[in-house]
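re: ur question from yesterday

yeah so i grabbed the chain u mentioned. its 321 aa long if i counted rite. heres the sequnce exactly as i have it in my notes:
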Amino acid sequence: MEMNSLILTTPPSLSLSSSSFKSKHFGHLIPATKPLNSWTTLKRANNVKALKGSHTLSSNWEIKGTATAPWLPKFEELDTTNMLLRQRIIFLGSQIDDTTADFVISQLLLLDAEDSKKDIKLFINSPGGSVTAGMGIYDAMKQCKADVSTICMGLAASMGAFLLASGSKGKRYCMPNSRVMIHQPLGTAGGKATDMSIRIREMAYHKVKLNKILSRITGKPEQQVELDTDRDNFMNPWEAKEYGLVDAIIDDGKPGLVAPIGDTAPPPKTKVWDQWKIEGSRKAKKNLPSEHKMLQNGSTGGQRSDEEKETPQDKDTPTSV
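ran it thru and got these structure tokens back, copy pasting raw so excuse formatting
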């Protein structure tokens, strides 16, 4: 670079006369604030216009029309969980595990701390899951001062049915097309023999504890609860109400809400259903009529009377309904 050849030149439009400068501080020359020509004025005006049109940090806080109409979020911005929570509704719609239990427990405690005099509505559509996670939700429901109303939609099975029955008495509901299922705890055990015995003993503990709680909730003897939960026991809403798991069936009588029954009356019960209600030993289930027995007795055509269909064993063993 040739430093000696650098020459500072002044444009013709700019004049370095003393009249265009004002001396203010310590004898230094400071340029005057007034515009020097039309080109500079136009450039500054464009810069101010661009600055006003740009988005600033505070521009997003100014919502137009807030004084006349409330601001509504877009459809993609809606959070259904929080919107239901504002209505004191908790939705349990998945398998019950530790993550789901923590989420439901936190919502129960939050709503109870917000207002302990208003009911909390717990909607259940769950196939069940972990016993320990479900017992955590159960303890949180009992810890709440507010009443926890439970509503079954779809399916409440296993631990889901247990939580459905654990709601506040008189506030346990079932939708007319839902299903409820109770059974004993399930699990696997592997490893060493001592480890397997520990796991089996733990499963037996949970089985006894759940049966005791269900017995207290439904008012049925523990022996009957143990018998009824020996296998998967599916119930319709009216059977669940009769068993003591729910208090009422939600049905407003709209056409098509329940098919084929359109009112709150339970469906017609068959002879098999009456025999399933027998309270006693495990022999009651062994005496139930099976399809093989019906074929042997020739009762598929429906022409024989009830007395002709009964076997000598059925006549000798009276049953109490």
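noticed a couple things. The domain at 80-182+233-268 is CATH 3.90.226.10 (2-enoyl-CoA Hydratase; Chain A, domain 1). also Residues 212 and 222 are 6 Å apart (CA to CA).
anyway ttyl
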